[in-house]
Write a structure and sequence with these properties.
The chain has helices at about 20-35, 35-55, 75-85, 155-160; strands spanning about 60-65, 90-95, 100-105, 110-115, 120, 125-130, 135, 140, 145-150, 165-170, 190-195, 195. By secondary structure, the protein is an alpha/beta fold. The longest helix has 21 residues, at about 35-55. The two termini are about 25 Å apart.
Length: about 200
């Protein structure tokens, strides 16, 4: 049930039946990839500043972040500032299919490699406890703060584990969409865009 190579469908898996979400994914990916590079740089800076404010307001000490893929907002400058201020960062790691994500400690600037799915992870994995606060990249989002991802279900399985983390979705405002949630969808606490918090 995946329309993006970030988390490939298992070989031989039957195609997912069309839904509003599966129809939205390619359209939102195309929209995001068509954005002007200068505009993206300004938006990423604005989003990064809001992420810093959110972390300061919540006295965040441990933060799950993400490595930007397929046009996701690039917040690595904000990550470096957070790390310099003593926030411990961790990147998500796919441990196995149909399982929650693991998290590896990460310091900006350290060596990275691509995992079996093509996602950047620290070259030296240091798996630890799941961070109590997490940034969650969104391909799209709706007014109920439900996230549209790539269809792999990794974040859904990760967010359902208790205790529930503080979650901040990250997206561009133009990716707001109308779609119905599924039973497994979990609303994010907030979503940050270049225009503000949702």
């Amino acid at each position: 049930m995946n329309g993006n190579p970030r988390i490939p469908r298992e070989p031989g898996a039957p195609p997912a039946p069309p839904t509003a979400k599966t129809a939205l994914r390619p359209a939102l990916l195309a929209l995001r990839r068509a954005l002007d590079a200068d505009l993206i740089a300004r938006w990423d800076a604005a989003i990064g500043a809001r992420v810093l404010d959110w972390c300061r307001a919540g006295a965040v000490e441990d933060l799950g972040v993400y490595w930007p893929l397929a046009g996701e907002p690039d917040l690595r400058a904000a990550y470096a500032e957070l790390a310099a201020g003593g926030v411990r960062l961790a990147l998500p790691v796919v441990l196995e299919k149909a399982a929650p994500l693991g998290f590896s400690a990460w310091t900006p600037g350290e060596a990275m490699v691509k995992d079996g799915k093509g996602v950047a992870v620290p070259a030296q994995l240091r798996l630890g406890a799941r961070p109590a606060a997490r940034l969650v990249p969104c391909l799209g989002f709706n007014a109920a703060r439900l996230r549209l991802g790539y269809g792999g279900g990794f974040y859904d399985r990760t967010l359902e584990a208790l205790p529930r983390p503080a979650t901040l979705g990250v997206a561009y405002s133009c990716l707001a969409a109308q779609f119905d949630g599924d039973a497994h969808d979990i609303a994010l606490d907030a979503i940050v865009t270049e225009e503000g918090m949702v």
